[in-house]
Amino acid sequence: MELVWPPPPSNEPPSHTLPLPHPEAYPGEPREYARALMQRRDDIEKEIEALKDVLTSHGATPQTSLVDPEGYPRGDIDIYAIRHARSALVRLQNDRIEVTDRLSVALQNAFAAPSSSSSDAAAAASAQPNGHVQTSSVPKSNDVNGHHQIEEEIWPERPVAKVNSVASGSPAADSGMRANDMIYSFEGVTVDSPGGIQSIGSLVARSEGSTLQILVLRQEQRVRLSLTPRNGWGGRGMLGCHILPV
Length: 246
Fold this sequence. Notes:
Oligomer: single chain
Helix content: 25-40%
Order of helices and strands: HHHEEHEHEEE
Low-confidence stretches: 1-16, 113-146, 148-152
Number of helices: 5
Shape: globular
Strand order of the largest sheet: 1-5-4-3-2-6
């Protein structure tokens, strides 16, 4: 089936993209807000892939020149359709960045443990190794290296990846990640996300210096890690770990 852009009957591109979920629409339900953001991000990914297919069907890419060597509009391609597809693609890519940033904050709020006061939270943080805060009523001695234990979270049915190895002194090692950890969510990227494990690479590439939330299963223990990608740590890549698809 031939892909057409803009879609009939209108010959004009959308004047705006769909609004992103707003936290005020989910009062007291941070996990539902996070789920809504994850769904919107997945929808955006699908729309982006559809627009890329449109460009491909016209023999073009986002970088294809629309003029000939003499500077005249090319007559061998549908310039109108390509320009409109590119315009929509830029808007969606900006939306993806925005929803990813919001999702990072939403996941932190969804995973945050309730506390009676800020001083209690500070005391808990200082009492835990690596400054991590215990998120369940399980005694501290049962924590996994002081990282967050997860009793009831947004937890996918299956893992998206497995940690094959972790380099010493790397950002992954600093986060507490270990070989054989099963990754169920990598900053919202799950087994159901478009692109799967490849989406993790794309996310990391644009997240240097940003803290990412990772949900892993370790010896039947659910653990949340905070990982900050960075270059210059002394090894290859920004994570220092090797992960494999499951």
